[in-house]
Design goal:
It is a single chain. The chain has a domain of 75 residues: Plasminogen Kringle 4, CATH 2.40.20.10. It is built from 3 helices and 8 strands. The strands form 4 sheets. It has a two-stranded antiparallel sheet. Strands 3-4 form a two-stranded antiparallel sheet. A two-stranded antiparallel ribbon has the order 5-6. A hairpin with a 6-residue loop joins strand 3 and strand 4. It holds the Pfam family Kringle. This is Kringle domain-containing protein.
Length: 310
């Protein structure tokens, strides 16, 4: 049977994620079903009608961070499974004595998991990419967990089952994209999982919260913190390196120090990062203006960009 597909989460992504669940728990489900298995209409997630759900991370992890796109309003009143321990997609209902119910989201019978992501973080991704950006093979997750005990608490965040050979890129936290531990040295590294094409089947160069945008190629302030254009060559003529390959350098508390993809403090970008994104930016408000990483011989250094004023 032909599988009905949704256009997107929040209006982007193309018709690639199916209107069914790809895993038992269905954490990756981003379809439009909005009533429970008993026929009750779902409430909007952003109303948070009964406080923090019992299977969320409470104060350690804000309510909004449990949702793909880190914005519960994007999910309207559609069935989801954003918490830790519920068995399949569910939603809030208006009856305060019941509060929530499961939804009848069917299993996909003839659909493969899309090899792309809808959001910058890509928490919805359950594809089979298992090689990092640097070309390293991913380690089997069940071999990593005994050596990284802090990951035990986050195993419920995986949508699919972690059987023995499972070494696919996933994002079980608030990282900037799917990742894995590489076989060599057990270093956390990002994977090259692209954005899904838009509804016209096209890729766009700049996205904000998953939405394709046409940015201005100029800055409105001297420092250019707001600039999200596509200039990617520095004043010295060097091509910019991809941000995501150097993202640990921008973190105030890099992942490789703790291996825990939670509670990190990082410098925000105004647009979404993806594997080949190498445009001039000023995420840490440098007084010299927009900049990027470049290669200088065997070293990786920074250089400023000449973005004109509007």
């Amino acid at each position: 049977d032909e599988i009905e597909t949704i256009e997107s989460l929040g209006g982007t992504g193309g018709e690639v994620y199916p209107e069914c669940r790809l895993s038992e728990r269905g954490k990756e489900y981003v379809g439009t079903r909005n009533e429970t298995e008993t026929g009750k209409p779902c409430l909007r997630w952003d109303t948070q009608p009964y406080g923090m759900p019992w299977d969320f991370f409470d104060n350690r992890f804000p309510y909004e961070e449990h949702f793909f796109g880190r914005n519960s309003s994007l999910h309207e009143n559609h069935c989801r499974n954003p918490g830790l321990y519920r068995r399949r997609p569910w939603c809030f209902v208006a009856d305060p004595n019941v509060q929530w119910e499961y939804c009848d989201v069917p299993f996909c019978t003839d659909a493969e998991a899309p090899e792309c992501k809808l959001t910058e973080a890509g928490n919805e991704y359950v594809g089979k990419q298992n090689v990092t950006l640097s070309g390293k093979q991913c380690q089997h997750w069940l071999q990593v967990v005994p050596m990284r005990h802090s990951l035990w608490n986050f195993l419920p965040l995986f949508s699919d089952d972690l059987d023995g050979p499972h070494n696919f890129c996933r994002n079980i936290g608030v990282s900037t994209g799917p990742w894995c531990f590489s076989v060599s040295g057990l270093i956390l590294q990002y994977c090259d999982v692209p954005f899904c094409p838009n509804s016209e089947g096209e890729q766009c160069r700049v996205r904000v919260s998953g939405e394709c945008v046409e940015p201005r190629e100029c800055k409105t302030t001297p420092n250019g913190e707001e600039y999200i254009g596509t200039q990617n060559v520095t004043v010295s003529g060097h091509p910019c390196l991809a941000w995501i390959k150097n993202y640990e350098r921008v973190f105030l508390f890099p992942f490789y120090r703790s291996y825990i993809p939670f509670n990190h403090s990082y410098i925000p970008f105004y647009d979404d990062l993806y594997p080949s994104h190498n445009f001039c930016r000023n995420p840490n408000s440098r007084s010299g203006g927009t900049w990027c990483f470049i290669e200088d011989g065997n070293n990786t250094v920074t250089d400023f960009c000449d973005v004109p004023m509007c």
